[in-house]
Design goal:
single chain; alpha/beta; Isopropylmalate Dehydrogenase; 2 domains; two-stranded antiparallel sheet; 12 helices; globular; binds 3-isopropylmalic acid; binds manganese (II) ion
Length: 358
C-alpha cells in the first residue's frame, strides 16, 4: 500500500526527532512492502520566520490532502514575546482545529527496562503503569472566548472561557468508552465539579452517556486536584482516564514523568475519520536543539500509532514497539533516560538502532 504522510517538523528538536521517526518508517516500508511518501510543511516558529504566520494555508491544505500527519514540536524562546495569536503554539492549535481532531489519546506507559528512570519509589511502579489519558482537544478554555482590556474600576484585565457543549463531551466520552471496552471496562473522568459549572455538565454528561450506550463500563469521577496527587501516590490504579483539554494537558505531563521521561510518550489526535495527527507529547526543547542528544522514541512511537490507528497496520505497530523494547533491553539510552552503566547514544543513533531491530 501507498501512504501520503505530511511531516510537520516544527522547531527546536522537531527536525531531529522527525528524521528519526522517518528512518524507522522507511525500514517498516522495506520490510512490509509499503510506500510512505513524505511531504514536509512548515508550522510554528519556522513558519513565522518564513511566511509571517505560524500556520500557512499551504500547510493546512497539505495536511488535509494527506493520509495522515506526523508532527515534531513547535515553539522556542525566539518567538516568546509575540502576541497570543501570532505565537508558534497557535499553529499547533490551528491545525488540530482545522483537521477536526477532537480526541487526543496519550498513553503513559512505564517500560519495564526503564523502571529505574521513574522518580517514584520502586514499590509504587513495580507492577507496571499504563495510564491512557483521553484528552478533549478542540474545546474548553483553549478555544473559548478571550477578552482583555480595562474594566469598570480602571484595572487592566484578561479572561479566557472554559465552555463545553453536551455533544463535545459525548463524542470524547465515546472514544474513552471504546478504549475501555478493550481494556479494563472502567473510565475515570477527571473534572472540577465542586467549583466549575462546565465540570458539572461534564460529569452529568459522561455518566448519562455511559449509562445509555456503554452500561458495562464503570465510570468513576476524580477531582483534578486529587488526580494530580493520585498519579504520584498510586499510578498503577489508573487505566483509561477522560478529561478536558486543559486538565489533560497538565495531567499528561505529570503521568509522563512518572513513567520515566517525557521523551518516551507519544500521542494520537483523531476526529471522525482516519486521518490523524501524531506527535510526541513533549515540546521543542530549544535548549538541546541541534545537538543530537534528544530522545526520538516518543516521535517513533507516534509514527507507530499512526500505522495502527490511521492505517490499521497492527503488525507494523507491534514491530516498532518491540524494536523499541529490544533497544532499551540492550541498554541503549539517550541522555534523558541514561543511568550509570547504560550505553549512551544520540538521537540519530537511537533511531538507527531501533530501525535495525525491526
Ligand atoms: C501539548 C502542548 C500544547 C498544548 C502547546 C504547545 C500548545 O503543551 O500538546 O501538550 O498545550 O496542547
Ligand atoms: Mn502539554
Amino acid at each position: 500500500m501507498k501512504y501520503e504522510i505530511a511531516v510537520l517538523d516544527g522547531d527546536g528538536i522537531g527536525p531531529e526527532i522527525c528524521a528519526g521517526a522517518l528512518r524507522v518508517l522507511e525500514k517498516i516500508g522495506q520490510k512490509y512492502q509499503h510506500i510512505f511518501n513524505f511531504t514536509h510543511f512548515d508550522i510554528g516558529g519556522c513558519a513565522i520566520d518564513k511566511w509571517g504566520e505560524p500556520l500557512p494555508r499551504k500547510t493546512v491544505d497539505g495536511c488535509l490532502k494527506s493520509d495522515s500527519v506526523l508532527l515534531g514540536a513547535v515553539g522556542g524562546y525566539k518567538w516568546d514575546s509575540l502576541s497570543g495569536d501570532k505565537r508558534p503554539e497557535k499553529g499547533l492549535l490551528g491545525i488540530r482545529k482545522a483537521m477536526g481532531l477532537y480526541s487526543n489519546v496519550r498513553p503513559a506507559k512505564l517500560w519495564k527496562s526503564l523502571a529505574e528512570a521513574s522518580p517514584l519509589k520502586r514499590e509504587l511502579v513495580k507492577d507496571g503503569v499504563e495510564i491512557i489519558i483521553v484528552r478533549e482537544l478542540t474545546g474548553g478554555i483553549y478555544f473559548g472566548k478571550r477578552e482583555s482590556g480595562v474594566d469598570e474600576t480602571g484595572a487592566e484585565f484578561a479572561s479566557d472561557t472554559e465552555k463545553y457543549t453536551v455533544p463535545e463531551i459525548e463524542r470524547i466520552m465515546k472514544i474513552a468508552c471504546e478504549l475501555a471496552l478493550k481494556r479494563g471496562k472502567k473510565v475515570v473522568s477527571v473534572d472540577k465539579a465542586n467549583v466549575l459549572e462546565s465540570s458539572r455538565l461534564w460529569r452529568r454528561t459522561v455518566h448519562a452517556y455511559a449509562q445509555k450506550y456503554y452500561p458495562e463500563i464503570t465510570v468513576e469521577d476524580v477531582l483534578v486536584d486529587n488526580m494530580a496527587m493520585q498519579i504520584v501516590k498510586n499510578p498503577a490504579q489508573f487505566d483509561v482516564v477522560v478529561t478536558s483539554n486543559i486538565f489533560g494537558d497538565i495531567l499528561s505531563d505529570e503521568a509522563a514523568q512518572v513513567t520515566g521521561s517525557i521523551g518516551m510518550l507519544a500521542s494520537s489526535s483523531l476526529g471522525d475519520g482516519t486521518r490523524g495527527l501524531y506527535e510526541p507529547i513533549h515540546g521543542s526543547a530549544p535548549d538541546i536543539a541541534g545537538k543530537d542528544i534528544a530522545n526520538p522514541i516518543a516521535t517513533i512511537l507516534a509514527a507507530a500509532m499512526m500505522l495502527r490507528d490511521s492505517f490499521g497496520l497492527t503488525e507494523e505497530y507491534a514491530a516498532i514497539e518491540n524494536a523499541v523494547q529490544k533497544t532499551l533491553d540492550g541498554g541503549w539510552r539517550t541522555a534523558d533516560i541514561f543511568k550509570e552503566g547504560d550505553k549512551k547514544v544520540g538521537c540519530a543513533k537511537m533511531a538507527e538502532l531501533i530501525a535495525e531491530n525491526i
